Amino acid sequence: MLIEEVISFISVRMADLIFNYMGKTVFFRTFEEEDIDAIYHWKNDDELNKMTVGLNRKICRDDVAKWVRSKMPHNPYEVYWAICANDETKKIIGYAQLTEIHFINSSANFSGIVIGDRAYQDGFAWIETYLFIMEYAFERLGLNRLCGSSILGHKDSNNIGKLLFWTKEGVLRQAVFKNGIYYDLNLGSILKNEYFSHKENGDFELRAILKRLRSIRQNNK
Amino acid sequence: MKTLDEFVVLFAEQFDDTDKSEINASTVFHKLDEWSSLIGLSVIAMVDEEFDVALKGDDVKNAVTVEDLYKNVIAKL
Q1: Contact B14/A217, CB-based, under 8 Å?
Q2: Helix, strand, or coil here: A29?
Q3: Global pTM?
Q4: Least crowded by CB within 10 Å, which of A2, A79, A112, A131?
Q5: CB atoms within 10 A of CB A186
Q6: What is the ipTM of this complex?
Q7: Chain A residue closest to B35 (CA)?
Q8: CA–CA separation, A18 and A20 (whole Å)
Q9: Across the A/B interface, how many CB contacts are shorter than 8 Å?
């Protein structure tokens, strides 16, 4: 089979998989035209973007619309999801992305989660999205390695790594200029065998996660 | 059973940077600057441990004040 055929096969398979994944409190779908206004609002929300890795700059609606539309068609090398409330509203509450999917290295970059709607910053949407992305990467795409980065000092991101058994790989010193200062960047990853080992151990069950979070938070204080 | 005042203290302990005096029973907690998914999950974890109550997303989302959340917890005891 030619590599193009393999990629085409994988692309079709991924397109099948990314639609209508239903979780408990959220579900995931590809971007739609009506998502543009919400995403425009979040991309220009200074508080929301204060400690994210990406640049914090004002973006006009036309540029956001182009960006959203560019992420609608499925792409074998990256996946963008609208995170939607699994309640009567069904509205978009944020978005998540898996990028740099590499089928030879069997790896991908978990490029982040934005829970833009503050009413849904209850922790459930956040943790469920994280678990979904790991499940998607390891169980659906069959990848071997998932990596990511976060600004040192971004409490949510720094704690989620510890909470979900990511291994810290290193620090890029003063790698991100934001809020008038340079921030160090944490690099972390989790491997397929680690993911399945913890899953089989029940470590990704909500009760176990909550217990571990209490412990991590108390150790941090 | 813990009182509302005790719940407010436990709730406030989940925050790192917010002055504890800013948080009382009538605080609209979603509007606190430090409120985030991590703090939300920490509150759920605190309720799980201190009250043995499993909150759901709606319990947190629909509560406006700290007292509302306390009432949701008590209703599940």
Answers
A1: yes
A2: strand
A3: 0.87
A4: A2
A5: 23
A6: 0.86
A7: A121
A8: 7
A9: 78
Provide the token pair at A132: 């979904």
CATH number at residue B48: 1.10.1200.10
Interface of chain A against chain B, CB under 8 Å? 24-25, 47, 87, 115, 118-127, 155-156, 159-160, 207, 209-211, 213-214, 217, 221
Say yes or no: B73 contacts chain A, CB-CB below 8 A. no
As a whole number of angstroms, the distance between CA A40 and CA A45 comes to: 9
Chain B hits for A221, CB-CB cut-off 8 Å, are 16
Domains of chain A as residue ranges with CATH: 3-220 (3.40.630.30)
CA-to-CA dists, residue A76 to A107, A153, B19, angstroms: 13, 33, 47
Question: What was the pLDDT predicted at B12?
Answer: 95
Structure tokens at B11: 């709730």
**SS3 of A127, please?**
helix
Closest to B13 (Cα-Cα) out of A217, A141, A173 = A217
The stretches in chain B having pLDDT less than 50 are none
Per-residue tokens: A12: 């079709």
